[in-house]
Amino acid sequence: MDIKPHLSRKGFTLVELLVVILIISILLTIGSVALRGSGGKGVSTAIAATEALFDEARSVAVGKGTNTRILIDIDDATSESYLRRIAIAYEELDDDGKPTGDWKLSSRAYTLPDKVFFSRTFSRPDHDGAGGSLEEMNLTGAGGFYDGKYLYYEFNSEGICTTGLSGSNYTGPSFVIGSGARAMGQDPKTTSEGRRDFAGFVIWRNGSTSVFRDPTQIIGNSDPQTF
């Protein structure tokens, strides 16, 4: 008669279970803190998204052989999209491949996270020189939802950023956003806890971007109250 060996099954002890639960709790805490830090008030996330939009606009310009523009909505201060909606448009070409002056959206627009706004004060065609204002355009024929007035940055068909380009001279324009609050019909304002919560990047002639690593590169030592 064969006698099968007795196999003892050893389970987890209470101490081992408590240790596992403790480790899981620590990991969950670290993960939640990391997520809060990476998102902040949406500024960090929005900068990464808008950098990708500039890359896309340059690619569309080269791919279609035409001009493209990154548009920032400034049409209606009573709209939720005011200083928050960002879109890419390209200039249509005629049968001979010449620009027609008509602009068409290349994709759906991106909206900045809640309480994050484009800064008209700190976004300039010449960031180092702190001079000038971005150009404006009226978009028509894109449907009532998107038609309106926009600020814009432009790339030509060679993928060169023409915002800040004057002849052979190029001054790096900046794209800056910040967190704040906005009453309907008014421009956004900074809050006491987010007075220096700004981020952005400079766009170089070839379309590459350099992110500002410190708010002082954007606003200096000032304590801004408006965008």
Automatic annotation (TrEMBL):
Pfam families found in the cross-reference section: N_methyl
Keyword presence, Protein transport: no
Keywords on record: Membrane, Transmembrane, Transmembrane helix
Ranges that cross the membrane: 12-35
SUPFAM superfamilies: Pili subunits
InterPro entries (alphabetical): N_methyl_site, Pilin-like
Name the record gives this protein: Fimbrial protein
Gene source species: Haloferula helveola
